[in-house]
């Protein structure tokens, strides 16, 4: 895509000491509000209400700007409509979520809702998932408005409050509302992948992976009912034993490796130049070395998730008393479906592995993998992300399309656009990956400032009049 043409003003992303201090204090304040979601019926509504008040206080300019409309949807989600000056430009949407997963104090270096700053890092639940994005988006807009910025291209900011528990009251309602208003979006940018550093052996340089799809998912309940009785005279098989054997068969039988189908091949081909010899030759010739690369990817639990549908046993329940053989045993398996498979295909495979009619299957939730968004030279959203990555992170040589192994609220917006990109402009190392939904989640003050700067530039870059030009490699 060519550089932005006809941009009358470009507001430089320079911020005063006072502004930088205020922005990190604002993120700390956001972390301190425990907006935890446990289940769709159990979210911390008091904290969500407080969070709504908090953003009004911290970003006053956004709330008083005449060309910005703010609406509360589903009681605690927020939708901002930023009216651009040129209605001929198709709007886009930035997304983030305010809720976080639970964080019991155990194992944390500092309390998870303290928002403490230590050694240049802000600590706490939500610093990477996903209050960093939420606060950086609003902060960037607030600072642009203070500098009298008026966007050309309209955009929406959608902040869900229940992403961690399905998005049914936040994202789904916002999506339905925008659809009813006849909105069609040029593209969406949500959380998802990162600038990855240290995930692949021999690859010394970081690379940006923009997720152009995300895996599907199934929450599957397995249940076995057997005759209960006295533990002093047990039958040969019990509900617990039958279910445990079924689960064990599933754990011992990974679903097929789907390497070669979906966006992963493109990711690897685009990364080939970053590898030293002979890995670069291997990746450039996947027609020959595909089976080798596929086997290597299976060996690591993160890259394994990129090549196949994964199964995680997340809940197991049976029995109420030590000397009673229980009538029922239940387990929940969370499956994440590879882009080349469907819910139906995966259910078939799982049933064949279990191969025991006494095990009943109940699908609790299920959705297919998300469609693959365009990443070619004419894909406006992808190219704007690429352009902004290259200017804010000049040390990153490769920007590649990939898949998101987790799920995001953006999956509820396929009715509004075919171009959904899941990308956080933040470096992620393997230990950071484990902190997401784990312990000691933290973000460096510098990384947060850079994320805010990225969005500050991105919003301005999105004002381009030019459609991306095909077949030009340089921006
Ligand atoms: C060739 C490429 C080689 C290597 C790539 C290396 C690594 C890729 C690894 C990691 C990718 C990086 C980051 C992914 C991190 C997090 C996942 C992203 C978003 C997930 C957000 C989330 O947690 N969502 C929940 C939402 C949910 C809740 C309830 C029901 C359904 C969904 C989730 O997915 O569970
Ligand atoms: Zn998230
Ligand atoms: Zn999450």
From TrEMBL:
Known catalytic reactions: N-(9Z-octadecenoyl)-L-asparagine + H2O = L-asparagine + (9Z)-octadecenoate; N-(9Z-octadecenoyl)-L-tyrosine + H2O = L-tyrosine + (9Z)-octadecenoate; N-(5Z,8Z,11Z,14Z)-eicosatetraenoyl-glycine + H2O = (5Z,8Z,11Z,14Z)-eicosatetraenoate + glycine; L-phenylalanine + (9Z)-octadecenoate = N-(9Z-octadecenoyl)-L-phenylalanine + H2O
A GO cellular component annotation in the UniProt record: extracellular space
InterPro entries in the record: Bact_exopeptidase_dim_dom (IPR036264), Pept_M20A (IPR047177), Peptidase_M20 (IPR002933), Peptidase_M20_dimer (IPR011650)
Annotated metabolic or biological route of this protein: Lipid metabolism; fatty acid metabolism; Amino-acid metabolism
GO biological process, one term: energy homeostasis
Keyword Nucleotide-binding: no
Gene3D superfamilies, per database record: 1.10.150.900, 3.30.70.360, Zn peptidases
Keyword vocabulary terms for this entry: Hydrolase, Metal-binding, Protease, Signal, Zinc
A single MF term (Gene Ontology): metal ion binding
Pfam families: M20_dimer, Peptidase_M20
Domain Peptidase M20 dimerisation: 213-356
The protein's role, per its UniProt record: Secreted enzyme that regulates the endogenous N-fatty acyl amino acid (NAAs) tissue and circulating levels by functioning as a bidirectional NAA synthase/hydrolase. It condenses free fatty acids and free amino acids to generate NAAs and bidirectionally catalyzes the reverse hydrolysis reaction. Some of these NAAs stimulate oxidative metabolism via mitochondrial uncoupling, increasing energy expenditure in a UPC1-independent manner. Thereby, this secreted protein may indirectly regulate whole body energy expenditure.
Family stated for the protein in its record: Belongs to the peptidase M20A family.
PANTHER family in alphabetical order: N-FATTY-ACYL-AMINO ACID SYNTHASE/HYDROLASE PM20D1, N-FATTY-ACYL-AMINO ACID SYNTHASE_HYDROLASE PM20D1
Name this protein carries in UniProt: N-fatty-acyl-amino acid synthase/hydrolase PM20D1
Species in which this protein is naturally found: Vulpes vulpes
């Amino acid at each position: 895509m060519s550089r932005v043409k006809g941009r009358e003003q470009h507001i430089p992303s320079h911020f005063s000491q006072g502004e930088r201090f205020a922005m990190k204090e604002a993120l700390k304040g956001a972390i301190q509000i425990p907006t935890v979601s446990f289940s769709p019926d159990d979210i911390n509504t008091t904290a969500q209400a407080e969070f709504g008040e908090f953003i009004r206080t911290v970003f006053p300019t956004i709330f008083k700007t005449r060309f910005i409309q703010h609406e509360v949807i589903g009681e605690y989600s927020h939708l901002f409509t930023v009216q651009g000056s040129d209605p001929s430009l198709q709007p886009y949407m930035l997304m983030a979520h305010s809720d976080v997963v639970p964080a019991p104090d155990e194992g944390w270096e500092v309390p998870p809702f303290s928002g403490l700053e230590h050694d240049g890092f802000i600590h706490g639940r939500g610093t990477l998932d996903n209050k960093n994005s939420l606060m950086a988006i609003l902060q960037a807009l607030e600072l642009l408005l203070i500098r009298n910025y008026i966007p050309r291209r309209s955009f929406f900011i959608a902040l869900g409050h229940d992403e961690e528990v399905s998005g049914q009251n936040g994202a789904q309602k916002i999506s339905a509302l925008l659809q009813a208003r006849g909105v069609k979006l040029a593209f969406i940018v949500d959380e998802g992948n990162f600038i990855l550093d240290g995930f692949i052996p021999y690859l010394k340089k970081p690379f940006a992976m923009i997720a152009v799809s995300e895996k599907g998912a199934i929450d599957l309940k397995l249940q076995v009912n057997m005759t209960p009785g006295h533990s002093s005279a047990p039958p040969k098989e019990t509900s617990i034993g039958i279910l445990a054997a079924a689960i064990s068969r599933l754990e011992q039988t990974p679903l097929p490796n789907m390497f070669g189908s979906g966006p992963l091949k493109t990711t690897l081909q685009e990364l080939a130049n970053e590898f030293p010899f002979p890995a670069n030759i291997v990746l450039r010739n996947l027609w020959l070395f595909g089976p080798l690369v596929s086997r290597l990817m299976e060996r690591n639990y993160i890259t394994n998730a990129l090549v196949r549908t994964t199964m995680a046993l997340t809940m197991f329940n049976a029995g109420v008393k030590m000397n009673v053989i229980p009538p029922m045993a239940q387990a929940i398996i969370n499956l994440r479906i590879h882009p080349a498979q469907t819910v139906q295909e995966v259910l078939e495979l799982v049933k064949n592995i279990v191969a025991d009619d006494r095990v009943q299957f109940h699908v609790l939730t299920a959705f297919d993998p998300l469609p693959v968004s365009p990443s070619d030279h004419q894909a406006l959203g992808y190219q704007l992300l690429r352009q902004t990555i290259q200017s804010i992170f000049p040390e990153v040589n490769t920007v590649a399309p990939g898949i998101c192994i987790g799920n995001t609220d953006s999956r509820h917006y396929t009715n509004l656009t075919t171009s959904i990109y899941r990308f956080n402009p933040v470096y992620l190392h393997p230990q950071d990956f484990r902190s997401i939904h784990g312990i000691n989640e933290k973000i460096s003050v510098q990384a947060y400032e850079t994320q805010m700067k990225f969005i500050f530039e991105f919003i301005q870059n999105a004002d381009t009049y030019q459609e991306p030009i095909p077949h030009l490699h340089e921006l």
